[in-house]
Each structure stands twice: as structure tokens, then as C-alpha cells.
Amino acid sequence: QVQLVESGGGLVQAGDSLRLSCAASGRTSAITTMAWFRQAPGKEREFVAQITWNGGRLTYGDSVKGRFTITRQNAKYTVYLQMNSLKPEDTAVYYCKARTSTRADSWGQGTQVTVSS
Questions:
Q1: Percentage of the chain with pLDDT > 90?
Q2: Alpha-carbon dihedral angle through residues 47, 53, 54, 57, given to the nearest 10 degrees
Q3: Vertex 103 angle, CA 9 and 19, to 5°
Q4: In the prediction, which pLDDT does 75 show?
Q5: How wide is the angle at C-alpha 59 spanned by C-alphas 26 and 11, nearest 5°?
Q6: Is the pLDDT reported for residue 76 higher than 90?
Q7: Which of 4-23 are b and which e, b meaning 16 or more Cβ less than 10 Å from the residue's Cβ?
Q8: How far apart, in whole angstroms, are the C-alpha atoms of residue 52 and residue 100?
Q9: How far apart are CA 27 and CA 106, in angstroms?
């Protein structure tokens, strides 16, 4: 089992930047990928970005390409989401997800990001 704790959310204005963090604990050696998803009120959960733990392959959702960057710090089993040029439509609860080698998924509790216009 992997436990995840997100942090870094908050209230910002359009055009501002924000960095989210997700720290993993537990069976961290089994992690193969970590990802960020988001869910706005009344909408389905949306894929934001993913990084593979070995090799660091990056994947982004179309709505955030060129504005968001996902990175990892291997020694701390922590993944970050740098969000630049934020828009009101980026307002959502952001969730971190870890997948292990057995394809088991773990989710964090979420962190709220609110972007005012």
C-alpha cells in the first residue's frame, strides 16, 4: 500500500503560478508511475500529467500542455506539479495518484486550487 499526501493548493489570481507537492510513503519501491488529476465541481476527474518513476517519461493533458510541468525527486519519493499562467478554468481539486508494479492505484486526499479572474 502507498500513502500519498498533497500540499500547495490555494487561492491565486489568473496568470499566477503555483506549485503542488505529493509525498509518497509506504511501498514506495513498488511505484512505477505518479500522476496528477483534477476534478472541478460538476465535472468528471480529468488527467493532468504523469511521470514514470524510472526513466522519467512525461505525459500531459491537452489543456495544460505548455503551462504545467511535472517533476519528481526520487530520494524523497515526491512529485511536483508546477503550474504557470493559471486560468480560472484550472480551478479544481487536484489529486495525486501512484501506481505500483502490481497495477494497484493509490490516491491522495486532494488539494484545492482556486484561480480568480
A1: 93
A2: 30
A3: 15
A4: 84
A5: 75
A6: no
A7: bebebbeebeeeeebebbbb
A8: 11
A9: 11
β partners of residue 95: 37
Name the DSSP class of 71.
E
Nearest to 4 by CA among 17, 31, 23, 18: 23
**Separation in Å, CA 67 to CA 18, 73, 85, 112:** 11, 20, 6, 18
Q: State pLDDT tens for residues 83-117.
A: 999 999 999 999 999 999 999 999 999 999 999 99
Tens-digit pLDDT profile for residues 18-35: 999 999 999 999 999 999
User: Could you tell me if 107 and 38 are in contact, meaning their C-beta atoms sit under 8 angstroms apart?
Assistant: no
Cell numbers placing 4: 500519498
What gap in Å lies between CA 108 and CA 117, rounded to an integer?
Answer: 28
